[in-house]
């Protein structure tokens, strides 16, 4: 009887942890991020965004992390894959994309328009 109780407890804990891990992975990209883009013609750039899930899709607004008065840029679309995202937006008369893939639980790496190195780090507060 003791073995059966232990087995049921382990089964219950396993199902509980499995449920939490699926929930966390679904919204891995949701939340506040700081995106740094390096060596652009205008120098390095830092953008802040808080990606939020609306009707099952991620969306948000990009803002200049170094200039609070700069106009905000609406994210047009976020394409999600299990280990990567593409953030699409319109800036300075051009369609722009930032492709980022998971590096670890709090960091992403990728490129802006396939030309400039981009890194993102999860922020604890927006």
TrEMBL record:
Q: Where is the signal peptide?
A: 1-21
Record's superkingdom? Bacteria
Task: Print the keywords alphabetically.
Answer: Signal
Q: Does the keyword Signal apply?
A: yes
The protein depicted here goes by the name Lipocalin-like protein
Q: Which organism is it from?
A: Algoriphagus aquaeductus
Q: What is the lineage of its organism?
A: Bacteria, Pseudomonadati, Bacteroidota, Cytophagia, Cytophagales
